[in-house]
Amino acid sequence: xxKTVTFDGAAPVGTINFGIxxxxxxLLPVDLVKTASQSFFDEAQxxxxxxxxxxxxxxFLQSLAGxxxxxxxxxxxxxxxxxxxxxxxxxxxVSVVFANPGDTVFVEEPSYFLAFQIFRDHGLNIVGIPxxxxxxxxxxxxxxxxxxxxxxxxxxxxxxxxxxxSTTEDRxxxxxxxxxxxxxxxxxxxxYQLLYYYDKPPAAYGTMSASERVLSLGSFSKIxxxxxxLGWIQTSERLLGQIKAHGFINSGGSINHISSLIVRKAxxxxxxxxxxxxxxxxxxxxxEAMDAALHEHFDGIAEWTRPDGGYFFWLRFDESVDTxxxxxxxxxxxxxxQGGTVFSSQGQxxxxxxxxxxxxxxxxxxxxxxxxRSLFSKIK
Length: 380
Ligand SMILES: Cc1ncc(COP(=O)(O)O)c(C=O)c1O
Hints:
The longest helix is centred in the C-terminal third of the chain and has 28 residues, at 271-298. By secondary structure, this protein is of the alpha/beta class. The chain starts with 15 loop residues before the first strand and ends in a 7-residue tail after the last helix. It is globular and about 60 Å long. The protein is 38% helix and 15% strand. It folds into two domains: 16-29 and 273-373, Alpha-Beta Complex (Aspartate Aminotransferase, domain 1), CATH 3.90.1150; 30-269, 3-Layer(aba) Sandwich (Aspartate Aminotransferase, domain 2). The model has no long low-confidence stretch (mean pLDDT 96). It has helices at 30-43, 58-72, 87-97, 113-121, 138-145, 169-182, 237-244, 247-252, 257-268, 271-298, 326-332, 362-373; strands spanning 16-17, 81-84, 104-109, 125-132, 135-136, 150-155, 185-189, 214-219, 231-234, 312-316, 335-336, 338-339, 352-356. It binds pyridoxal-5'-phosphate. Residues 21, 86-88, 112, 156, 161, 189, 191, 219, 221, 226, 231 line the site of pyridoxal-5'-phosphate (PLP).
């Protein structure tokens, strides 16, 4: 008897849940991964099934360096790169290697909610720094540095989760200057850097790794497939040396060695680049469908800025609105979203909500937004 195939966080059949920040099935490239895997296994040598070297397979790192050089428009070299199991694991790693229990870390307010738990798992104290339409507020950061000494600042510089905005080039430069001045590291989660649907975002922090202050975390989850559990950290040779010495990597060798050898083939045969280009087209149509549907149903009810990349719309409602209890009501109309509070390290942002356009096509997006409309009343 066949069993319904599902995935972690799947919505019940018939429900359009914009809380799901994962790609839809039609954007997960089974054939691409199959061809890359076949090409790897056709030539595979027994040693490739052994432990990989701690930093990552040299041939994969070479291909990744070439990919980043062309994608970020600045030279990347394999001696700045170490393989990870995706940005979640990268965050866990930097929390162990570059902070001690009891240390403070700065996060953006709002920020990627699942990162909070990773930091708390390591006994880190979280302090939120506000963001605005231009990204992380440098003034607020400077103010907070007067009373705190963070081990690192966790930032999502391009196409923020949940905010959708990007930190400007000027602010990025100022943040690196402050990191030098106040002696802290910048952990830049660049998971959406290549998912731009209009102009390109400001240069990735990965291009600034020579500064000795920057750890740029990248991942194949959003540009290829989350199930590969593959990503990288781009940083200076000195910081990379500290990561390599970590016990888990020292004991296990390259993280997700075989996944990396398969992805190497997808980089080298050009299929990854073609896939990313087609994702940009698909997501751009979805962004525009969601923006239009929101204008049709939510003008005068909420405020938002159409994101230029990434996965998310971030809606602000009148102060009197609390979105959390509305999630239950959304279930009743077979719709869904993420309430704002989970993205706040301080339990604030009750009058916000996050919508992902990654998991549904345009028709479902229009239908889902129409369903959500009934939960809210006009501001005035
Ligand atoms: C900002 C951010 N960081 C990290 C992740 C998880 O990344 P990975 O799949 O590479 O662990 C996500 C996924 O939603 C994300 O939005």
